[in-house]
Amino acid sequence: MTTVNMSSSEHLKVLREACKKIAPVWPLENFVAVNPYLGHADQTFESTAQTLAKIGGIQMALPLSFYLQKIKEGRITRSDLQSVLSKKSKEKTKVDDFIALIENATDETTGVSTVATLADVATQVTGKDWNRFATSRMSTWAASYFDDGQASWAAADQQAALFPAWKFEAEVDNTTDIMGLKGFRKAAKSLPGDPVKAMDSALQILEMQANMLPIYLHRLLLSVGGWSAFAARLDWESELNGGKDGKLMEFLIVLLCWEACLFQALDSPKLRVKWLTAKKSMVLTSTPSEINQQLTQKLILQGAFDQAAQREIIQKFKEPKAIKSLSASQVKAQAIFCIDVRSEVYRRNLELVDQGIDTIGFAGFFAFPINYVPIAHDQGVAQCPVLITTGATILEEIPDKKTHEQARKSRTLKHQVQHIWKSFRSGAITCFSFVSPLGLSYLPKLFTDSFGLSRPVPHPDHVGLKGKYMKLKGASLNVATHGNVGAGMPLEQRVQVAKNALNAMSLTSDFAPFVLIVGHGATTVNNPHASGLDCGACGGRSGEPNAKVAAAVLNDRQVRQLLKAENIHIPDTTVFLCCLHDTTTDEVTIFNEQEVPVSRANELEELKTSLAKAGHASRTERALRMTTKGSVDDAIMRRSKDWSQVRPEWGLAGCSAFVVAPRFRTKDLDLQGRSFLHSYDWKKDEGFKVLELIMTAPMVVTSWINLQYFASTVDNKNFGSGNKTLHNVTGGVGVLEGFSGDLRVGLPIQSVHDGKNYQHEPLRLNVIIEAPTEAIDAVLEKHSAVRNLCDNEWIHLLAMDDEGMVARRYAGNLLWEEIGAVGV
User: Fold this and answer.
1) 333 neighbors 516 (Cβ within 8 angstroms)
2) Taking CA atoms, which of 321, 325, 708, 783 is between 20 and 30 Å from 112?
3) Is 476 helix (H, G, I), strand (E, B) or coil?
């Protein structure tokens, strides 16, 4: 059956299915972690690896040498290998035979797809790299069309729909003529103006058969995977807000038309013959000849490596732990941190330096999904996970109206001056005046910045993390209902969100005198991916606004009074402190000290001393993974303002576990900054509603983070962003590696590798939940997307018993297996 016999609606259906396989990528402004295999979650990990290797030349495991080294080191044991071989190998292969087989094998890591686009075939026929040229032209056009204010002059018509904008550009772009494609512009002009009709026309020109179409379309999207992912994010946000998809489908039609125009411009008998042969490989089968045998071996090794890591963390919980919580009268403070793996290091050190402090793990937006509007801004930003929609709009303000107005005018004037200065520096004529005489005036600052004597950008205490938001002394977030339409929270809403947050934290009684709500952000300079170090739960932004709103609501006397009807009694002596943990420097700042009574000043100073000691201990621990000289504190601080530093911090590198249990289960364990920690007491969870929330939100988000780091490690070419030192920001939305090419997605190689060793080793997430397996099964049955993650082994699900031991492992299809004494 040819596509000629397919209707336009059938074509669109196949296009939509292909587009659903592309995971979205967020822009640099809020670069949040995304599972790049998101569109394949309904398939097994192994089958996806085989599919992506065939279609896109994508790797989902490291070279054989990596795993052989782990066997040599003893990390992967014979029992680990035997366990996986018995489950995954169709033949009864002995461990010794398997090891001998891979030791004698030659690594095949070419990453070449066996499915070719028309541009690939044209390259083979003519000897010219048309694939590279096509990617370059598409990327140049897309950067202009999707530009978010970086370009001074807009080349593409951003007001037009995507396909008409490209068609107009293709008709007038002389670059194709210069490269020898004399008929390309004529072919583009002959295409129908309607994208659906143009799609039908392109498919007819390329003579595609129906059974070839799904593979071919997927291959096309992967050929410009970065911009495809960017368009997918536009569809994601549109659907999240009740709209429709369509951007990625239209982009795919553009890619189809580009191929059709290239085919017509290079029309030759040899090209037609080669293209006919290439199309025969566009039917995915599961016959032995189609299976990549070495990839199968790598996946077995990866499975053994995963099992080895699982065995190690199970061993950490091997000894039953007695409940060692302090009595309510002994607790001086409770500190609520984000579940982020970097918080595990600080929390452990804080509890170590001050045993009167209990810590709690919770998603860093603290169940306050706000739309935050900084001073002097007209529009807000979403301070919540990208999986959910925002709630109330909260305005930043200074209580004193005169000071607030001065701050607003100052910020507005500063923005206007910066805009004028940028226009002067990048103007067609004035740029020469800037570079020649005025450029010399930058030499002193260039010198002081280079030696760490000054900062390339203003300090965050003055203008906010990365210069994004204003953090003025005395500024607060007024959560009460404003005169502004839609701004603020009515009292009933404040009570509801407070109740929901405290229940989700399992914190409804025994409140300490101080309760710290600690958001987190990162302080770096000259780092396009800086927002990737901020709080993913806050949409790739600092958690400071969420902490401020949460503290303001929970300190509200009216809210506390009405919470009593919900059986939540917060003592009048309890003060909620809004804080920010800078994960680059491990400093914790308290923003509302003025709310602490003067009579308790000494208690506050003791708390601040403990925070400072924990910061020093955390910096010392983190420095072991970095190359530092001299004082640890000074070295870490220098990294945060060093514009040449490609590794200011390690972010979430190493993340491999997610523990959902009361804090006392992990309090004495050193999890090495590799585990997300979510506080949860299933005995307080009526109807297991909180468990359902955790498994459908934080568990999914942590799997996204884990799989982003996994993919950026095993295949940085396709799912990472390459060498950070070669990055050029394009369109204000992403980076290119060098001057051209596709938009890069994922993490730079410097974020996962230190130059000698991987700082993030590819391990699928081990999720450990203390709850009855019947309750966990009920959530899996209700939510198919979550069940797919577990059944298809994208994550490993484990259950903790009442003794605190990891006793059962999820085996798929709502079945569990007992874990033996050695944790296998």
Assistant:
1) yes
2) 708
3) strand
Question: Mean pLDDT in the chain?
Answer: 88
* The residue type at 524: T
Q: Is 634 helix (H, G, I), strand (E, B) or coil?
A: helix
Closest listed residue to residue 617, CA positions, set 637, 638, 639, 632: 632
Question: SS3 for 103?
Answer: helix
Cα within 13 Å of Cα(568), Cβ side: 21
- State both tokens at 83: 């366990």
How many helices (H) and strands (E) in the chain?
31, 17
Beta-carbon contacts of 683 under 8 Å, excluding residues fewer than 6 positions away, are: none
Beta strands 575-582 and 587-590 are antiparallel
Cα separation, 522 vs 640, whole angstroms:
9
Q: How far is CA 592 from the centre of its chain?
A: 30
108 near 211, Cβ under 8 Å? no
What's the whole-number mean pLDDT along residues 439-463?
58
The residues near 128 (Cβ < 8 Å, ≥ 6 apart) are 122, 179, 180
Four-residue CA torsion sign, 166, 168, 170, 175: negative
Per-residue buried b or exposed e for 647-663, using 16+ beta carbons within 10 Å of the residue's own CB:
bbbbbbbbbbbbbbbbb
Pairing of strands 587-590, 675-678: unpaired
Start-to-end Cα distance in the chain: 51
pLDDT digit string, tens, across residues 621-657: 999 998 878 899 999 998 988 888 999 999 999 999 9
What does the alpha-carbon distance between residue 667 and residue 656 come to, in Å, rounded to a whole number?
A: 18
Distance, CA of 752 to chain centre: 14
pLDDT score for 574: 97
Using CA atoms, how far apart are residues 791 and 810, in angstroms rounded to an integer? 8
Residue carrying structure tokens 């020469």: 432
Tokens of 738: 């060098």
Q: Which residues lie closer than 8 Å to 414 by C-beta, 6 or more apart?
A: none
**3-state secondary structure (DSSP) of residue 622:** helix
Model confidence at 152, pLDDT cuts 50, 70, 90, reads: low
Give SS3 for 410.
helix
> Sheet holding 806-812: strands in order across?
675-678, 657-660, 766-770, 796-800, 806-812, 815-818
Alpha carbon separation from 143 to 36, 135, 242 (Å, rounded): 21, 12, 27
Least confident of 91-95, 508-512, 745-749: 91-95
Mapped onto helix, strand or coil, the DSSP state of residue 451 is coil
Structure tokens, 727? 């990055």
Using H for helix, E for strand and C for coil, what is the string for 311-342? HHHHHHCCCCCCCCCCCCCCCCEEEEEECCHH
Could you give the maximum distance between any two Cα atoms of the chain, in Å? Answer: 90
pLDDT above 90 (res 759)? yes
Beta carbons of 795 and 287 less than 8 angstroms apart: no
Say which residue, 414 or 307, is predicted with more confidence.
Answer: 307
Helix (H) or strand (E) holding 432: helix 430-433
Q: Which residue has the higher pLDDT, 508 or 388?
A: 508
Look up tokens 């995304």; give the residue.
Answer: 34
pLDDT class for 473, splitting at 50, 70, 90? very low
> How does pLDDT run across 173-191, given as a tens digit for each residue?
999 999 999 999 999 999 9
In this predicted structure, the answer to whether residue 483 has a pLDDT above a threshold of 60 is no
Q: State how far the Cα of 680 lies from the Cα of 659, in Å rounded to an integer.
A: 9
Residue recorded with tokens 């577990």: 790
pLDDT at 311: 96
**Token output for 48:** 């996806």
> What is d(CA 481, CA 493) in angstroms, rounded to the nearest whole number?
10
| Contact (CB, 8 A) for 550 and 578 | yes
Look at residue 427 and tell me whether its pLDDT is greater than 50.
yes
What mean pLDDT is predicted for residues 409-426? 61
